[in-house]
Amino acid sequence: MQNLEPILIFITVAEMGSFTRAADSLGIHKGRASTAVRKLEEDLGVRLLHRTTRSVRLTEDGRAFHARARDLLAEVDDLHSMFAGDRVALRGRLRVDLPTEVARTTIVPALPDFMAAHPQLELEVPSTDRQVDLVQE
User: How confident is the model at residue 1 (pLDDT cuts 50, 70, 90)?
Assistant: First the structure.
């Protein structure tokens, strides 16, 4: 899926707000990231990012493209996962809301082993003892 690389680079730059941090995260040179995004903008005929020496922000077109591009890459990952079978590691974001006591006594002690077994998983485990309205929240 080599032709999706510029989209992945763009998404990473947009989410990190920096070409340098995005390039480091992806294990590529900053110049390659910059060139990929510039070429993507040329191919699309729109400016996706506002660039200054201090920040990188999405343009209006960039916001629209970012939302669709994230969905596209998620679909591609799902397609790959369909045929990968047991070879696929858990990855992505998982959020589990728990009562405080369950989190403290059961989940938190098991987290180090779980996260070591699934390093590509981003886990959010908020806990509360208040009644949660599942429909509203």
Answer: very low
User: pLDDT digit string (tens) for 61-98?
Assistant: 999 999 999 999 888 887 877 776 666 677 788 888 88
Task: Give one DSSP letter per residue of 28-97, joined into a string.
Answer: S-HHHHHHHHHHHHHHHTS--EEE-SS-EEE-HHHHHHHHHHHHHHHHHHHHHHHHHGGGPPP-EEEE--
Say which CATH class 2-85 falls into: mainly alpha
Closest of 62, 52, 86 to residue 10, by C-alpha:
62
Give CA–CA dist 27/106, Å, rounded. 36
> In b/e form, how buried is each residue of 40-72, taking b as 16+ CB within 10 angstroms?
bbeeeeeebbeeeeeebebeeebeebbeebeee
Helix (H) or strand (E) holding 124: strand 121-124
Give the pTM.
0.61
Q: Where do the domains of the chain lie?
A: 2-85, 89-124
